[in-house]
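Fold this sequence, please.
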Amino acid sequence: MSRADQLFLQNCRDILSKGVWDTDLPVRPRWEDGTPAHTVKLFGVVNRYDLREEFPILTVRRQYLKSAIDELLWIWQKKSNSIHDLSSHVWDAWADEEGSIGKAYGYQLGVKYDFPEGEMDQVDWILHTLKRSPASRRMVTNLFNHHDLKDMALQPCAYSMTFNVSGKVLNGILNQRSQDMLTANGWNVMQYAALLMMFAQVSGLEAGELIHVIADAHIYDRHVPVVEELLKREPYAAPRVTLDPTVTDFYAFTKSSFTVEGYQYHELEGKIPVAI
């Protein structure tokens, strides 16, 4: 089985067997019928993925890599907060009448700061540092800007990336305050593995480990039967995911820059309930 399947399934087993329910507490999320969306959760889940061994993509359910990368590029490359710049509809429920999600995600990465090296936004500063000072231990991005939280449609879940170079290998730590395991875990892991690959390639480095730190890893009450079905499935081996080697500029990557070969997966029947 793939490493991504192994970690995902074990995380889900641990949450269901050891987790704590919030049914006795008031919660913000709601189902479409207005019912409170309660969860069972574990605190402080840490997973490690080595991109030199395989690309982390689930096979117990189908994952849409190019759609995930499209959203990632919307945030990290376009630095946009407008759903009109996004091919999918994953953010439609959070957008205002003009299609904006406020000062969230891509907006934060596009803000320019006076770094010691000059005025840059967070993405350009990381790319600059990777090429000129790869031994730096200060390559950290942060989307959780307390000053702007009131102007965000949704406070960022995956809020911080730390990049670190060991020799010629680029590693990264993704910090996430909240993780909906069924709908978002595989999605976010694919995205930030892809980001690590892109940053490594344009910096003349090799993508190494992605460490995913989740503060609140949870399964929604109406997702439990779906997760229990996934736990019965036999995973396939990980597919081969490659990146177009001719691209040397981060801003030239597209979702088509990635190629997936040999992807076997189980289909997921029915529509997954969405909590908003």
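The chain has a mean pLDDT of 97. The helical segments are 3-18, 65-76, 106-110, 122-132, 181-202, 224-230.
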